[in-house]
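subagent[fold] <- orchestrator: predict structure for attached chain, return tokens only, no commentary.
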Amino acid sequence: MKLNLSYILFILLILSCNQNSNRTGIDANELDSLNIEGPKKVLTSSDTIGTGLPIFYNMYLSVEMTSLFETVGAIFNDDLLNTADNTSDYITSSKKAMNIGVYAVDLSYCRVFEQFELAGRYFTSMQKLAEEMGIPSDYFINTAKRFDRNISDKDSLISIANEVYVATDKYLKDNEQFNAAAQIILGGWIEAMHIAFDVASTTKDVEILERVAEQKYSLQNLIEMLKSYKDDEVTGYYIDKLNALQTQFNDFKVDVPSDFDVNSVEGKKHLNNYIKQIEGLKKSINESVKK
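subagent[fold] -> orchestrator:
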């Protein structure tokens, strides 16, 4: 069974839609919202959707995300992002792989806020790291030209960025570098949660808090996938850190009644408790996982 899920998501925690697990061949631009339920099965790094994009754990890229950000008052914050010019700092193949995932998430974040020039720099960094991992540059020639022509088109931007990832993922798997492909997903997940926790704690929006709480399921699937490569020193390190995070995540529950009033005494009490837990998760991501 193949699930219609997109890899390049980060604050993906934001909108809800119904999941249809029987469709295949869906384009990334068709994915318009997010529904996170309990995991239907354990996923592996070799699971893909019809177009070859890797499954990213019940997460959908939302083309409606901008309106939700506006609703909750979120603003663009480049301090949350990894610096696009950091590629020279990544010497090992593991660091290169993980930061392809990180940059993909950062590019998506920039796209939401129409920061097209910065998005272009992240695209270039993704391509550079992929080439440094041994992927021939001719994989990206046509894609790079299209990117330059469509730099201000949000929908084209995300589609073209997906092409870079698909080419990278295919090359790695064709050359049996499955651990590297898994580490790209790992990097993207960590960056996604880093941004999501910040948005949740600063906006204090209940809907976003609910979406964040549901990420315990994506974390569970991520850990299960990485276990296939636990003998790798870097992957093993992150498995340990993610297991610790999962214990903390499992205690985070957002149970919002239908008559929830954030301005009531009880509502404020619940909200403050949620924010306190989010701050704890954010600290764990920043101090022990995101490094």
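orchestrator: received. Logging for downstream: The CA atoms of residues 10 and 192 lie 4 Å apart. The longest helix spans residues 178-203.
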